[in-house]
């Protein structure tokens, strides 16, 4: 990674970048093991057996619940992040999400306790989303507010890199379990192991974050400026345009990710009939292209500007939607892999530069709130609704109709960039 920097980061900067990377990797691991379990086993385990498609839809609904919790978490953690500082707020968000993830490992199923099972699952899923609502924005500020001038996007790429790392850890865990357990063992108890293992990862994240100091930008704002008493009120009063622009600007990256991962996994292993192990392996290979896209786009963003890279990513989202029907629906997994790799690579351009771009839209006194609100509100439209809408669209008109969802997401995010043009 050092090749992307013209000078080596100081030991203090390396510690900060490591903390931002580890923290988001743990958070995304927690989030993705739920997405994978929702696609594979949560439907029949936690919801009434009216029909297989109904169970899948209800499972995706519980998955989407976290996205509606995330803006609430963004408002709460953003308030304390802008009032009290970035460090303590990031510790709190990690503890909440990690605790909820571990608790899911001990839940009873619908067959054991009836409606209490999906209720408890949804409560813990809501807590997961509430915690993540304060995570991504704070981790981005931790990196960007410590960056030397001209290095904001290269430093800002470390929190986004937590996404592919967390995804590989989560799906790799499920892939490993699949080689060790048969389907019945996996359904009976194997799916619980990744949730239980989160306890060790959360402990690692907390150990790293507790060693950090506050960012220079927040110390400067606290020492020389009057911080807003209610940051979210100040945000909507004085920063409404960038908040709207940031919100619609993140829709494409969320839609790309959850349609190429959660939806593609469920659709590929049920409707298309691909083996679960084979498809998980294909997705793990394709996710490496997301990491590549993040690194390439963030290096270029410090030279050409983040908006130029985001624009390429949003156009790539449109192209991915056009290719979805013929490529994801192909009989050959190699063709499926090519589509996934392309979609995730261009997602790197729609996602990586957000780490530097979103903080640049807001002043320090409302920055934690602004980044978190914009990122997580956009997640509702691009992430929460995407697998549910895609399942309904696929049943009505096939994968080509699902591709229209990606096309619309790309066009809407391009409109977000237009809002910032004077």
From TrEMBL:
Q: What PANTHER family does the database record attribute to this sequence?
A: INNER MEMBRANE METABOLITE TRANSPORT PROTEIN YHJE (PTHR43045:SF2), SHIKIMATE TRANSPORTER (PTHR43045)
Report any Pfam family annotated for this entry.
Answer: Sugar_tr
- Spell out the protein name for this chain: MFS transporter
Keyword annotations: Cell membrane, Membrane, Transmembrane, Transmembrane helix, Transport
Which compartments does it reside in? Cell membrane
Q: What is its main location?
A: membrane
Extract one GO molecular function annotation from the record: transmembrane transporter activity
Membrane topology recorded in Swiss-Prot or TrEMBL: Multi-pass membrane protein
